[in-house]
Specification:
- It is globular, with a radius of gyration of 18 Å.
- A hairpin with a 6-residue loop joins strand 8 and strand 9.
- The N and C termini lie far apart (about 45 Å).
- By secondary structure, it is α+β, with helices and mostly antiparallel strands.
- The longest helix is centred in the first third of the chain and has 11 residues.
- It contains 2 helices and 10 strands.
- The strands form 3 sheets. It has a 4-stranded mixed β-sheet, with helices on one face.
- It has 2 domains: about 60 residues, 2,3-Dihydroxybiphenyl 1,2-Dioxygenase, domain 1 (Roll), CATH 3.10.180; about 60 residues, Signal recognition particle alu RNA binding heterodimer, srp9/1 (2-Layer Sandwich).
Length: about 160
């Protein structure tokens, strides 16, 4: 028998959660550049596995205090041993985006911008922005609480798709 438990989660008759969110996975072509990108947002690497037999690396990232609660898995498929071209991944909006609440959206966007990343949808309203990871994954940044619209962000135009 299933019933709704705390926060509307499904629980079984023993009161155990029936489902738990683990992570979202994105494929990357440059793991170190991608880890650095997410560090600029505030995520930390929490574990990494190199799987020789399958020729791939898994890197798990989480916001501080969110390890094991809400993580992003970066999957890096190693280049072929025969020297042929490595895999590439076309961007697709069908994935949607990752979203993170940040303490100060203006400071976060400035860190990303200073590191050479494009702010595709600037935080004109002080509330929401979109950037892309080195592999073109859309990342939504949402302001914790309220910030007044501020320059230079308030008058910036969108750049490309987000």
């Amino acid at each position: 028998m299933l019933r709704a438990g705390a926060a509307g989660c499904l629980v079984n008759s023993k009161g155990n959660l029936m489902v738990k969110y683990l992570h979202s996975m994105i494929r990357v072509t440059d793991p170190e550049a991608t880890v650095e990108f997410f560090r600029l947002i505030g995520l930390e690497e929490v574990r990494r596995f190199d799987v020789e037999a399958g020729r791939f690396t898994l890197i798990f990232l989480a916001a501080p205090g969110q390890e094991g609660v809400a993580e992003v898995e970066l999957t890096y498929n190693w280049p072929p041993e025969d020297g042929s071209a490595p895999e590439t991944y076309g961007g697709g909006r069908n994935f949607g985006h990752l979203a993170y609440r940040v303490e100060n959206i203006y400071e976060t966007c400035q860190r990303l911008r200073d590191a050479g990343h494009t702010i595709h949808r600037p935080p004109r309203d002080g509330h929401m922005a979109f950037v892309k990871s080195p592999d073109g994954i859309s990342v939504e940044l949402l302001q914790e609480g309220y910030l007044e619209p501020a320059e230079p962000w308030a008058s910036m135009e969108n750049v490309g798709s987000w």
